[in-house]
Design brief:
By secondary structure, the protein is an alpha/beta fold. Helices cover 41% and strands 18% of the residues. The protein has two domains: 117 residues, no CATH class; 211 residues, Alpha-Beta Barrel (TIM Barrel).
Length: 379
C-alpha cells in the first residue's frame, strides 16, 4: 500500500503533513517509540496510549523488531494471536524493522543469500533472507514493514560501504517481489551508503527505481558525528520522492531530529529516550537531568512544572531519585513516561515552528542546549 504525504505547511525544506494508511492517518513529523519485543520496556501499552503532550498529541506509531519477534515468541504465534496489534494491545499504527540493524550489531555471516546468525536467546542458527524477512513481517501484521538491508559500521572504507550498498540493493529487489500483503501493509525501501555522499545518492536512486511504498534512510547514527551524518542524509533526501514520507532510522537526540526535519525528514525512531530513562537521565527543556544526583534527595519539585505527564503531575524529584538509586522498576516506568512525553512534545514544538514559519528561531533556542549530545543509538 503506497503511502502518500499530504503537506500541510512548509518552512524551507521542512514540512508538516498527514500520511494516510489503511488504518487511518498520522501527522508528521512523528517520533516512534521503540517496543522491540512488542512492548516498550517498563511501560504497558495502556500507559503508552495514555501519554499526552501539552498540545494533546500522543504516540501514533509503535516500532517493533522482526529479529526478536521471529525468535520469541515466533511470527506464527503472533499471527495466531491476532497479529501484532492485538498481541501488543496497541491500537495505533505499528512498524516493524526487518532485522537489518541486527546484521550490523550482531555481526552475522552475510552472503548474497541472506544473513546467518545465532539466536541471542538459545544459540540456535538461523538464516534471515530478504524473502523471509518480508514473510515474517506479513505474519506479524504491522502497518509498515522494512526491507532487509546491510548497515555498515562507521567509519568504514569505501569498499565496505560499496558492498553494503550493492547487497542492500539486491535484497531490496527480492523483497519487492516477495511482498504480497499489499492491501493493508506498506513496504519501505532503505537507503544505505554510510557517510559517503556519492554512495548515498546512488543508493537512493536505485531504491526509488524499485518503487517502494515509502522510503527510509538507514545506516546513520552508528558512530559518526552529526557533522558527518547530515551531508550524507541530505544527499539521500534529494533523490527521494517529495510526496511520500521519509523515515530516518535510529536517530532520537533532539538536535539531530530538528536538523533532519529541517532537511525534509518526516519520521524518526530511537531507543534513546527510554534507555536514558532506565538509567535515571531525564529530558527537559534545559537539557539532560540526572535524577540520581544528591541535590534532588529532598526536592519537592516535579521534573518539569510545565510537563503534563503523570510523573511530573504526581511525583517529586525526591521520590524519583530514591527509586532510581535503588533500581526500582517503578522508577524506570515513571522516568520512561516523562521522557516519551517530552520527546513527543518536542516534536510538537517543531511542528508548530514550521507552521508559523519560525523553525530557524526554534533552532537557535535548541542548539545551545542539545549540541553536546550526539546522534541517537542506531537504527
Amino acid at each position: 500500500m503506497k503511502l502518500k504525504l499530504e503537506v500541510t505547511a512548509r518552512d524551507g525544506l521542512a514540512r508538516t503533513g498527514v500520511v494516510s494508511t489503511s488504518r487511518g492517518s498520522f501527522a508528521t513529523p512523528v517520533f516512534m517509540p521503540v517496543g522491540t519485543r512488542g512492548a516498550i520496556r517498563s511501560l504497558s501499552t495502556h500507559e503508552l496510549a495514555g501519554l499526552r503532550t501539552v498540545e494533546g498529541s500522543r504516540a501514533e506509531i509503535l516500532l517493533a523488531n522482526t529479529y526478536h519477534l521471529m525468535l520469541r515468541p515466533g511470527a506464527e504465534t503472533v499471527d495466531t494471536l491476532g497479529g501484532l496489534h492485538r498481541f501488543s494491545g496497541f491500537t495505533g499504527h505499528m512498524l516493524t524493522d526487518s532485522g537489518g540493524y541486527q546484521v550490523f550489531s550482531l555481526a552475522p555471516k552475510v552472503t548474497a543469500e541472506g544473513a546467518k546468525f545465532k539466536s541471542t536467546y538459545d544459540g540456535t542458527s538461523h538464516l534471515l533472507t530478504p524473502e523471509g524477512a518480508v514473510k515474517t513481517q506479513e505474519l506479524l501484521g504491522a502497518d509498515m514493514q522494512m526491507v532487509l538491508d546491510v548497515c555498515a559500521p562507521l567509519p568504514s572504507s569505501e569498499s565496505v560501504l560499496r558492498e553494503a550498498v550493492e547487497t542492500t540493493a539486491a535484497w531490496a529487489a527480492r523483497a519487492r517481489l516477495a511482498h504480497r500483503r499489499t492491501h493493508d501493509q506498506a513496504l519501505l525501501g532503505i537507503v544505505q551508503g554510510g557517510d559517503n555522499i556519492v554512495l548515498r545518492r546512488e543508493s537512493a536512486q536505485r531504491t526509488v527505481e524499485l518503487d517502494f511504498d515509502a522510503y527510509a534512510v538507514g545506516g546513520l547514527s552508528v558512530g559518526e558525528t552529526r557533522e558527518r551524518m547530515l551531508p550524507a542524509l541530505q544527499s539521500a533526501l534529494a533523490e527521494l520522492p517529495v510526496d511520500q514520507p521519509r523515515y530516518l532510522m535510529g536517530v532520537g537526540d533532539p538536535l539531530s531530529i530538528l536538523e533532519a526535519v529541517s532537511l525534509g525528514v518526516d519520521m524518526f525512531d530511537c531507543v534513546l529516550p527510554t534507555r536514558l530513562a532506565r538509567h535515571g537521565t531525564l529530558l527537559t527543556n534545559t537539557g539532560r537531568l540526572n535524577i540520581k544526583r544528591a541535590e534532588f534527595a529532598r526536592s519537592e519539585d516535579p521534573v518539569d512544572p510545565n510537563c503534563p505527564c503523570a510523573t511530573c503531575v504526581n511525583y517529586p524529584r525526591g521520590l524519583l531519585r530514591h527509586l532510581s538509586c535503588l533500581g526500582e522498576s517503578t522508577a524506570h516506568t515513571l522516568c520512561t513516561i516523562h521522557n516519551l512525553t517530552w520527546i513527543l512534545g518536542f516534536v510538537d514544538q517543531i511542528r508548530t515552528a514550521i507552521v508559523v514559519g519560525k523553525l530557524e528561531d526554534f533552532r537557535s533556542q535548541v542548539t545551545p542546549v542539545w549540541s553536546t549530545m550526539g546522534p541517537g543509538l542506531g537504527e
